[in-house]
Amino acid sequence: MKGLILCAGKGTRLRPLTYTNAKQLVPVANKPIIFYGLEAMRDAGIREVGIVIGDTGAEIRDAVGKGRKWGVRVTYIEQNPPLGIAHAVQVSEKFLGGEPFVLYLGDNLLRDGIVGLVEEFKTQKPNATILLASVANPQQFGVAEVKHGKIISLEEKPKKPKSSLAIVGVYIFDSNILEAVHKVKPSWRGELEITDSISVLLKKGCVINSHIITGWWKDTGKKEDLLEANRMVLETINPDVRGEVTGTSDVCGRVVIEDGAVVEDSTIRGPVIIGIGSRIVHSYIGPFTSIDENVIVENSEIENSIILRGSRISNLESRLEESLIGRDVVVERSFTRP
Checking phi first, is residue 297 left (phi over 0); if not, alpha (psi -120 to 50) or beta? Predict the structure, then answer.
């Protein structure tokens, strides 16, 4: 079985951050989102992974390389422009070679990974298995109607949903999908929809199983979702202080301070992660905050935020909360008046 991770989307919901950065490389708990997907593939025994890339392909290539870090072999597949998930499968047809494959949206986070999903597919041998989650707002998702564990219909963002089961963005297909993706026409969004392709499979009489997840899942397409995913992952970390803690500093709770980081005369309340080479001086870092590499925070308070590498936060009069700060950003108090 092969893996296919989609990373060609433009990340419009995270602009302006994604004008200059791939959304799949935004870190959650100081780890790029796509790394969680690669770990999920590896843990499920998948060793050949295709990554579908677009405008930000060079950045993703630099971060992931050939996949050796995860014990997988990565093949990069160009999709430019990105015309939908079904189109991504079309352009990946040569790589897939008719083998069953896991299709994984690159900005997804799953607490429990995909091991159970893959094992179930191998045991039951359907034509497809779709990962579903019960949600409170199914109108905002693709929704599946399920009977006796089999999917009998799909609808994209319905006004009157037939169930509360949302399509999570992780699928397993056999080779039947390769024919189906060529039979769909562009939707009102101008994209070739994977839901339409699955409907083709249903009309053909293919067996499509549902797999309902019990752990949390997040689509990290918006700032609020990223912050929530960051909170969820930070809840699972174990304390690990390898950096330097000096002066009157107070470190409490689940806190990770990585090599080369310095905490000086500051209060850290976990769960918090502070990246390599960062420096926290005369500051307060509150729960659910991830501070990436080589960040400087001085005379400031931060809580429930993600700060990307190389940024500097200094001399703020009020607390910085629920914020996503990009790379090499300076946020500081101005001492001049208009």
Answer: beta
Strands (DSSP E) contained in 213-333 are 217-219, 240-241, 244-246, 250-252, 255-257, 262-264, 267-269, 272-274, 279-281, 284-285, 289-291, 296-298, 301-303, 306-307, 312-314, 320-321, 324-325, 330-332
Helices (H) and strands (E) in the chain, counts: 8, 30
Place of tokens 């199914």: 138
- Global pTM reads 0.86
Kindly list the distances between the CA atom of residue 53 and the CA atoms of 37, 65, 172, 255, in Å, as whole numbers in the listed order. Answer: 15, 13, 20, 35
Task: Using alpha carbons, select from 171, 189, 181 the residue that is nearest to residue 9.
Answer: 189
Q: How many CB atoms lie within 10 A of CB 42?
A: 18
Q: List the structure tokens of 156.
A: 């994209």
User: Does the pLDDT value for residue 310 go beyond 80?
Assistant: yes
Higher pLDDT pick, 274 / 145: 274
* Model confidence pLDDT, tens digit, residues 64-73: 999 999 999 9
- Angstrom CA distances, 266 to 51, 82, 301, 330, stand at 42, 46, 10, 20
